[in-house]
Design brief:
Order of helices and strands: EHHEEEEEEHHHEEHHEEH
Radius of gyration: 19 Å
Oligomer: single chain
Distance between the termini: 44 Å
Shape: globular
Structural class: alpha+beta
Number of helices: 8
Helix content: 25-40%
Strand content: 25-35%
Largest sheet: 7 strands, antiparallel
Length: 254
């Protein structure tokens, strides 16, 4: 189910990182101009309304909070992507229907998710500040980088190492540093985790149990996980080729 909000949102208040490159004296005017309508997505299977495509000038849907899973299915195989705060979606954008490799895309909202529609009016409003448009484009490129990171992770030999690297990436994006390490809330099943790292569910379950027993990745209530300082030691011990997705992760307390 999707519901429209009663008010618009000031996008730069909701996502201040978009304005990081703006001069301080231009920020108030840009914040006032950059308005967008918001929608709330309920948990469950989601079919993006075709009407949201708007015109060719629509930049996309910006996730303000929540988690959405996108699965691309090819025969009996799938590639799963986790999207959250700060990500840009364009669910109506499709490859040509004459593509030689036929695939389908499924969307699932994992927790209530608020999105802002960056439509043509928004694009026109921020045209005075090319850095803002560039920042929005950068969000799409960040998703491309994430695809590359997880493609590399899926080729790491050990499933437990794949999980540590994946959670380290998630911690970089959405984690909170605390006294025990970095906590990240990800209400994912073992099967969903496996789809993201290229592993079967039983292997994921076994690897998660081992990581918890070693005090590396500790599960908590309501889908929260904690990467302890031991996780950094584990990653530092991986070959250089497997560390690419973790090099910008938050530093844990010793």
């Amino acid at each position: 189910m999707t519901s429209i909000s009663d008010t618009q949102v000031r996008v730069l208040d909701a996502d201040p990182d978009l304005a990081a490159g703006l001069p301080a004296d231009e920020l108030p005017a840009a914040t006032h101009a950059a308005l967008a309508r918001t929608y709330l997505l309920a948990t469950g299977t989601w079919t993006p309304p075709a009407s949201w495509a708007g015109s060719a000038s629509t930049l996309g849907l910006l996730v303000l909070d929540g988690l959405v899973m996108r699965s691309l299915e090819l025969g009996d195989r799938s590639s799963t992507e986790l999207l959250g705060e700060g990500d840009l979606l364009r669910p109506w954008q499709r490859d040509t229907e004459e593509a030689l490799v036929a695939c389908s895309v499924q969307w699932r909202v994992l927790e209530p998710t608020r999105i802002a529609v960056l439509d043509g009016r928004f694009a026109l409003a921020i045209a005075r500040w090319p850095r803002l448009t560039a920042a929005v484009v950068g969000r799409a490129l960040r998703r491309s980088r994430a695809h590359g990171v997880f493609a590399a992770i899926s080729h790491v030999n050990r499933v437990d190492d794949r999980l540590v690297l994946a959670f380290w990436y998630f911690a970089e994006r959405w984690g909170r540093v605390g006294p025990d390490g970095v906590a990240v809330r990800l209400p994912l099943t073992h099967e969903q985790l496996g789809a993201m790292i290229g592993a079967r569910r039983p292997s994921v379950t076994t690897a998660l149990s081992s990581l918890a027993a070693q005090g590396i990745l500790v599960p908590r209530r309501r889908g929260e996980w904690v990467l302890t300082p031991t996780a950094r030691l584990r990653i530092d011990g991986l070959p250089e080729a497997a560390r690419g997705g973790a090099q910008h992760a938050p530093r844990l307390a010793a």
